[in-house]
Every structure is written in C-alpha cells, then in structure tokens.
Amino acid sequence: MKIIDFEDKYVYNKYRNKCFVNFMSEDSIVKKDISKYTAKDSVFRDLFSDTEYLAELYAALHNGEEIAKESIEIITLEEVLLASIYNDVGFMVNGKLIVLIECQSTWTENIIIRLLMYLSETYYRYYRKTEQSLYSAKKVDFPKPELYVMYIGNEKINKEYISLSESFLEGEECDVNIKVKVITNGKKGDIISQYVRFTRVFNEQEKKYDRTRKAISETIKICSDENVLKKYMKERESEVSSIMLSMFDVEKELELYLKAETKEIADKRKAEGRAEGEQQRAIAVAKKMLVKNKYDFEEIADCSGLSIDEVCALSKDNNLQPV
User: Fold this and answer.
1) What is the pTM of this model?
2) Is 195 among the domain residues?
3) Count of domains for the chain
4) Which strand ranges, in their side-by-side order, compose the sheet holding 89-93?
C-alpha cells in the first residue's frame, strides 16, 4: 500500500486509533459479509497457533523429522493495540531452536529486514523470560535461529534463499548478515502444500464470488473434498469463517481513508492555489492602475478586488502614488 507523504502523519495516526476501535467492535465483525483482504494470512496465523500443526510444519521443514507437540513453545510476537511489533509465526523447539516464518502474497525482499527485527525482539524476550544476564561472565544459551518466508503470490520466484548481503549489499561481506529460506510449496500432502493449495482455492473462489460469504463457504467445501487442511477446517469451521469474514481489514480501511484524506487535501490545495492566483491577478491590476497615476485608492480597490488597505500597502511598497 502506498501511503501519502507524511506531512500528513496526523491523518495516519488519528485514523489508526479510530479504525482499531471500529474494527474490533462486534457489529463490524459479525454483520459485514465481506471477506477480509488478509484472510489467507489470518488463517495462516490461526492454523499455526496450534502446536499440533506446528509439529507438522516442523516436519515439513526438516525432511519429515517428527517431534512431539509438547516440545514446542509458541513464541509468536503478538500485537498489543497498534503500537507493538508482531510477526506471523514463531516457535521454539526444545529450547534450542527458534523458527520464525512469515507469509506474504506480495514479493518483497524487505522481508529480510523485517525478520531481522522480529528475531532481535524474539531474543530480547527470550533472555528476559529466562532471566539470563547478557552482562554476566557466564555465557548465555543461544537457541539456533531458522528464518523462512512462505510466498503464496503469483510472481515466479526461483531463489531458494535470500540474504541481507546479497539483496542489499550486492554480495559484499557484512558484519551482520542473515539468510532466509524461501518456500513456495511443500511436498505432496504435507502441511505446507496443503496451505498453499488452500490459498489457491481461495483465490479461485474469490474471483468467482468476490469477497463474500459464498467465496468462503466454497473454499472450505472444496478443501474438505480434496482433503486439504480437512481436520483443521472441520474442527474450526466457524472460527475459520469468522476469521475470513468481516469488514474490510484495517489496512484496507486505512488505504481508503487515506485516499479520501488525500483527495480532501488536494482539493484544499487547489482551492488555495486558485485563491493565490486570484490574489496575484488582483495585485497585478492594482499595480497597473497605480502606474497610470489616474485613479485614487478607492477606485483601484473597487476594480482590483483588493481592500483599500491592501492598495495603500502596495502603493507604499512599490513607491507608486495614485492621483
């Protein structure tokens, strides 16, 4: 989303607060039959808020290696109001491995920097929770990080990994460098391939029925028939529908609001421009009349549209005197 230049920051901040209240109200969620623009991302976060599915995800990322769901701790950074940093999915395995995964439908390598920020915040919270001092002589524990981006858009991405050095520094060595594995699909039948199929089914139904309840119900039906996330859909069908059905999400509302505000500002500036142009024309008329030295202040004011005081000031500034 392109945001207008931020001399209009007050518009953005004012609206974020207003939109948050509206978005969280029960009426706005229940009564609107419009599918959220972030429906797929919301389902991604909900699906992997369950350690059972996180265990499946871990296996899909590690060549089928199985782990007990009890060995998983969810460490996803949760949003607090609208001010806190938050990510899509984060979990720790046996206290030794940190896995962060972001899902995006629009490709951008800026995800590398975002993941770096999420990772930093995750470690900060880990050390605070475990009460390990980074200032003590004793070496602290350091869970190994793994970073992933799951891309579900239409652009063809051929990279297996992206890195800070390659993407932003043309391969130059960097004291701080991170590498992110790119996922565009999984192996047949695994949780990744099922989620990717779900997003494609949703896209197809959205094209047919727009962002409506019909698109959601058809997506759930087709996925169940194809055994795609079937257990999840069956157990949480109402929650999935609630997640995917609501008023426009906050970002879409913000975009629409900013467009309206931008238009209002543009209209105001046009009006100011017209007023400025008229003022300059009035001054030009008054100057010509003063130069001719044939008219008094009152006549000049009457013809130009300026006030008598303005004509007087113009006369003084330009050393021009009326008759």
Assistant:
1) 0.67
2) yes
3) 2
4) 72-74, 89-93, 97-104, 144-151, 179-183, 161-163
